[in-house]
Amino acid sequence: MTIDDESMLSNFEETEREDPAPRKIVDDNRTVYMSRSFRFPKDGLWGHPVLCDFGEARIGRFHHGRVQNKLYRAPEVTFELEPGWSFGIDIWSTACMIWDIFENKFLFNGFDEESKYSLSHHIAEMAAFVGLPSPEYAQRSSDIMKKCFTPEGRWLGRGGVTVPSITLEDSEENLEGEDKALFLEFVRSMLQWAPEERKMAKQLLEHPWLTKNLNE
Questions:
Q1: What pTM does this model have?
Q2: 33 φ, ψ to 5°?
Q3: Which of 24, 117, 119, 181 has the fewest CB atoms found within 10 Å of its own CB?
Q4: 88-103 helix and 177-188 helix, angle to the nearest 10 degrees
């Protein structure tokens, strides 16, 4: 996001001076700093969204390997499915980022009982929010998939983890009525196990949650 309320920058600097962020000195040439969040802009002065950083762009139809931040990682990357991953992973991560920004909290956190990231907990959260995968999807061959789901799509309790009793409806806290229904439909259209079942970018731009007030 660009910044229209420039006082956010001076506030960020002042906060850092008064309460410096934790840091780890790796060596003489490198220091790692903990991220610090900006405060919300005054009067809702959010800037326009911009696209940036194409350093992970790929040319070609399918690719292999781990990409994306863990909490935004699409199932086909997590499960290492064949024939590989494609642009559909960006649709999944876009849903996660929209949720983070709009709800001011992560959609997935993947924490275990010791507040450490756990792949089993993360996949269980996916099953809770998205629903169990179809048999057709669960039968896509992958060692990780076989440890998580039966060929019929039932959860195997990987790592002794159960699917939590959470839903998108209960987790969404800012909307009501039609607006809430449209927003959840919009997010669900991106959060599909199978990448070919996710909406394309052009279809998302035409979704009623984005367009319903354009002509008012």
A1: 0.73
A2: -105, 145
A3: 24
A4: 150
- What is the DSSP code (8-state) at residue 79? T
160 Cα distance to chain centroid:
24
Rounded CA-CA distance 91/143 in Å is: 24
Q: What is the CA radius of gyration of the chain?
A: 20
Q: In the prediction, which pLDDT does 172 show?
A: 96
DSSP code of 187? H
C-alpha distances in angstroms, 138 versus 41, 46, 111, 189, 194? 44, 41, 24, 19, 10
Q: What gap in Å lies between CA 165 and CA 188, rounded to an integer?
A: 17
Name the DSSP class of 38: P
Spot the catalytic one: 5, 28, 100, 179: 5
Task: Write out the two tokens for 203.
Answer: 């279809």
Q: Write phi, then psi, for 111 (nearest 5 degrees).
A: -85, 145
**Residue 85 DSSP label:** B
How far, in Å, CA of 38 to CA of 75, rounded?
Answer: 30
Q: Say how far apart CA 145 and CA 123 lie, in whole Å.
A: 10
Catalytic annotation present for 5:
yes
Across the chain, which has 216 residues, the per-10-residue mean pLDDT values are 81 92 86 84 74 69 88 95 94 95 92 93 97 95 92 93 95 94 97 97 94 73
H/E run at residue 121: helix 119-130
Lookup result for tokens 């057709």: 136
Percent composition of the chain: helix, strand, coil (DSSP 3-state, to 5):
40, 10, 50
